[in-house]
Amino acid sequence: MSGLNLIQGLFPRDYLRPTIDFILNTQTAQGEIPWFVGGHSDPWDHTEAAMALSIMGEHAAAEHAYRWLASKQLPDGSWWRAYRDGEPYNPDRRESNYVAYIATGVWHHYLITQNRDFLREFFSVVDKAMAFVLSLQGDAGEIDWAVDNNGMPKGDALVTGCSSIYKSLECACHIASALGIDRDHWVLARENLGHALRHSPERFDRTWESKSRYSMDWFYPVLAGVITGSSALARLDSRWDEFVEVGLGCRCEKQEPWVTVAESSELTMALLAAGDRARAAEVFSWLSQWRDSDGAWWTGYQLVEDVLWPDEKPTWTAGAVVMAADALTNYSKAASLFTRVVEPGVVAKLHAR
Predict the structure, then answer these.
(1) Is 137 a domain residue?
(2) Are 144 and 96 in contact (CB under 8 A)?
(3) Are 107 and 351 a contacting pair, CB within 8 Å?
(4) In a domain, 230, yes or no
(5) How far lies 185's CA from each of 100, 104, 153, 227, in Å?
(6) pLDDT (tens digit, 9 = 90+) per residue, 203-238?
(7) CATH, residue 226
(8) Global pTM?
(9) Full domain range(s) for residue 149
(10) What integer pLDDT is reported at residue 2 of this predicted model?
(11) Which CA distances in Å does 45 have to 48, 52, 243, 303, 313?
């Protein structure tokens, strides 16, 4: 099967239209975007799917999704890790990177729409979310991955989760700057988190086996802008053969014969962030074989058993594909969000009135 080779300026809008229709058809009347019809949602993946809607011009549906999420925010600024039909689903914990991601989604939507009323509406949501997240930051800069159902911190930190929070803090700082609101402590918190991720590996995976076997631990620090420039490219080169299956995609775990579409899409954006456009386009070109006839995308492919696995086509996988296509073609005004770091404060002069 021939791959989908994308170049700047040629966004495959018609090709991805069924993908967006799949997300829209899965979204509930209340605005929730579950993984699939009848399934559960979670704050991070819900936001990932909403970002795809923004890219494709479905702004009302995206804002409906964000308003649903805002309606479920708890008094302390957090969300439960999962919901089903609008209600908490197995509410045993609240995860910090899930909570922080609202800032990324809100800033992404604003970059595309330039809707300052939307930004003003959601500042309080982002403000409360960041207060919760930063209450879990340790003295060395790392941020605890979750609290239990009683609000007690779990007592450890994740490289992938903290990298995602690092990008969300960048976005939160931009939101505050654009509105002329002082949140300098967010800038400092981001700096401390970045320092921990770059220089204090002992602050992560303290109470469990190292998560370095997961590809996200490998490329997320690049995707989130923690590691940039030549160091980013060197990091991706260092474990390329462990995680990348040529012609198929990126493994989720190095020891498991399983490539996944979402990780491959995110790796595409990480490669762009590292300045390796050729490999980014190549990785993305392998993914069209995992697209179903309805425009949705299978989670992944099991190499040994030669089967699509699991038997799921999640909305967040579809969202990741759209975001990678956007980044490759530089289509939307948010196309470079994950491929370029804009340090907090830089946007203030552009957006403040």
Answers:
(1) yes
(2) yes
(3) no
(4) yes
(5) 15, 18, 21, 22
(6) 999 999 999 999 999 999 999 999 999 999 999 999
(7) 1.50.10.10
(8) 0.97
(9) 13-351
(10) 60
(11) 5, 11, 23, 25, 13
